[in-house]
Amino acid sequence: MNRPRIMAIICAALTVVFVLLVTHSDPVSGRTADEIAKQLTQSDIFDTSGLVLRSGGEFKKTFLLSAGDYDGVVYYSADSIMDVRELLVVRLKDNSQAEPLMEVLQKRIEDKQTLFKGYAPEEEALLNGYVLQSARGVVLFAVCQNSERVLAAFKEAL
Amino acid sequence: MVFSSAVFLFIFLPAVLLLYFLPVCFWNRRLEDHRRNLVLCAASLIFYAWGEPVYIILMLLSIGFNFNVGLDIERCSDDPKTKKRILIAAVVFDLMLLGFFKYSNFLIGNVNGLFSADIPLIKISLPVGISFYTFQILSYVVDVYRGQVKAQHNIVSFAMYISMFPQLIAGPIVQYSDIEKQLFGRRHTPEKFLDGVFVFIRGLGKKVIFANAIGAAHTEILSGGTEGLSAATAWLAAICYTMQIYFDFGGYSDMAIGLGRMFGFEFMQNFNFPYTATSIKDFWKRWHISLSGWFRDYVYIPLGGSRRGTSRTILNLAIVWSLTGLWHGAAWNFVAWGVFYGFLLILEKYPLAGILPKIPVWIRHITTMIIVIVGWVFFSCESIGEAFDLLGAMFLLKGNAASDAQWVYYFRGCGFPLLLMSLSAFGVFAGIPKPRNKYLSAVGSVCVYGAVMALCVVCLVSDTYNPFLYFRF
Predict the structure, then answer these.
(1) Is A122 on the interface with B (CB under 8 A)?
(2) Nearest to B265, CA basis, from B319, B168, B192, B200
(3) Rounded to an integer, what distance in angstroms lies between the CA atom of residue B250 and that of residue B290?
(4) Pairing status of strand A131-135 against strand A72-78
(5) Touching check for A80 and chain B: CB below 8 Å?
(6) B192 to A125, B59, B187, B196, B258: CA distances (angstroms)
(7) How many A/B residue pairs have CB atoms within 8 Å?
(8) Shortest CA distance to B20 belongs to which of B3, B4, B2, B42?
(9) CB–CB of B136/B159 below 8 Å?
(10) What is the mean pLDDT of chain B?
(11) Domain that includes residue A13, residue range
(12) Is the distance from CB of B331 to CB of B113 less than 8 angstroms?
């Protein structure tokens, strides 16, 4: 057998090994956005009282992004403009979606921080403690009181 | 990393250009070409790894596999049977990789739906650009088999061809035969570089100024779903998407072509004013030219093209257009979109072949545009059901109103941008004559493109709505 053929076979074998590793090393969470959000909201970690579960259309209106572009979207926010709490769980279709989505969310939090700065100290504190995390194909965005616990619960839920 | 991001525009691109044009091996042109290819290859791998740190390994293995396959095919040039076997093995392997990552969950979902089964989905995400680079790889392997090109013996040059960052993620699909001679000895001139900068800025403007603005309008119009939409509002949404996808993808292609030119490459044109088409066939000669060219050269013609009688031609067209739809995404609405165009092309080729030329051009143009807009509805919607809902609203089939105050409100917001975009899409701006004086022309271009670039930067800084529609393919 000639050298290129041996090298091609080695590359093919390594590709198969890589694909097996990727599918078995579990880089993408097997949980749906609904399941992850349910785990966060059913326990006392994220209090959804006073928050409304929003539709895909309302998600689109708020973030100018189509829910259908993702594998799943769960979005809670308050009706009152003075209540800054919100929870967003997005399951991505592919990793390239993470960067633009996180940019949108980062911009949203920065705009809100500017809006509430020096005006509503409690809301400002919540906004400063926001959580924005992308892990295993899922993005979490949360503005709430116990953000560290929410982040830990999110990682566990994946 | 996307072209229309601050990291790319202000850090990555200037750094790559600096390293690329640094005259390190100025005394030896061949050596300098090697060095520049190495810089471009390394930059492309960093560009890809920025968003896909895991799947870069897959791309490197794929490059290694197909590089060696090319060499093996060349070695077996006097043994047609072995040569064919190697080609078949390579094509099957490459397509299986694409199929596994792109279509396995679609297949599982359909099997589960059809047979009420509960097969778990595979936990994988789609590697960015896999559809584009797999097609480039296939074009190389097939062309080496056909003897149309020589196998590439330099793995850096081959890796650079596959991974070249200007066109890696969203095309155009550059066939190896088109670029083989440019891998070494390509010309770099200040004029060519400046022209590349202008083409890049033009593409950036199309994307950031036009596509993003009209995309936001489309998203807003349909944010409440299709329920209660008047026909006029539904048409406005469909027209907004028609413009968004052209300026988004066309803009990206211009940026790719411009960047290529800065680095001395000449990529093929991917769009040629598609919305001026007067038939569906004409539209597909002007839209995503590199993809239709690929399917023509590597699927339609090998299947027999139109040389094997009417029924076989119809079958070939049906296969090619179903595959074209499926290439765009693992969902039935994309297949429906492909079949829709296949059906129309068959109609144009046979029953309407004698009638179409007798119809006035302006009627053919309007009809083509309406068909294209309807086609984009299948493309833009998340499911076939949603597409039919929107079409129902557009054609007054849902008992909805023809017009309402909502459409006037939206039209006031996006009417002027739509007018500007239509003039640009129909080639009106391209027809404006340039000053005959070279100096005036150059100063004018620098001023216009400088202003466009400044406007793009302002938009990028102030707006976060910056999706690239063709990335997901």
Answers:
(1) no
(2) B192
(3) 12
(4) unpaired
(5) no
(6) 54, 31, 9, 6, 9
(7) 112
(8) B42
(9) no
(10) 85
(11) 1-26
(12) no
CB atoms within 10 A of CB A108: 19
Q: Is the pLDDT of residue A10 over 80?
A: yes
Q: Which two tokens stand for residue B166?
A: 């200007």
Is the peptide bond between B172 and the residue preceding it cis, with omega within 30 degrees of 0? Answer: yes
Q: Is A21 on the interface with B (CB under 8 A)?
A: no
- Of B410, B452, B14, the C-alpha closest to B222 is B410
Residue B193 host element (H or E): helix B190-205
| Average confidence (pLDDT) over B361-383 | 88
Q: Where are the domains of chain B?
A: 6-186, 192-472
**Chain B positions in Cβ-Cβ contact with residue A2 (cut-off 8 Å):** 72, 75
pTM attached to this predicted model:
0.77
- 3-state secondary structure at position B70: helix
pLDDT for the residue B225 = 73
What does the alpha-carbon distance between residue B334 and residue B12 come to, in Å, rounded to a whole number? 34
Q: What is the pLDDT of residues A64-111, one digit of tens each?
A: 787 777 888 899 988 777 888 899 999 887 777 888 888 888 888 888
Q: In chain B, which residues have their Cβ closer than 8 Å to the Cβ of A27?
A: 54, 123, 125
Q: Of B34, B153, B218, B328, which is the active-site residue?
A: B328
Active site residue B328: yes
Which pLDDT belongs to residue B468?
52
What pLDDT, in 10s, does the model give residues B156-173? 999 999 988 888 776 688
Partner-chain contact A29 B123, CB within 8 Å: yes
Question: Is the ipTM beyond the 0.85 threshold?
Answer: no
pLDDT at A57 over 80: no
Mutate to test the interface with B, among A94, A99, A101, A105 (most CBs of B within 10 A): A94
Q: Does the beta-carbon distance from B464 to A99 stay under 8 Å?
A: no
Q: Are residues A5 and A81 in the same domain?
A: no
- Give the model's pLDDT for residue B96: 93
Residues A12 and A58 in one domain: no
Q: How far apart are CA B112 and CA B373, in angstroms?
A: 33
Number of domains in chain A: 2
* pLDDT above 80 for B46: yes
Which residue intervals of B206-278 are DSSP H helices? 212-221, 231-262
User: A15 and A65 in one domain?
Assistant: no
Q: How confident is the model at residue B274 (pLDDT cuts 50, 70, 90)?
A: very high
| pLDDT over threshold 60, residue B20 | yes
Residue B50 has pLDDT above 90, yes or no: no
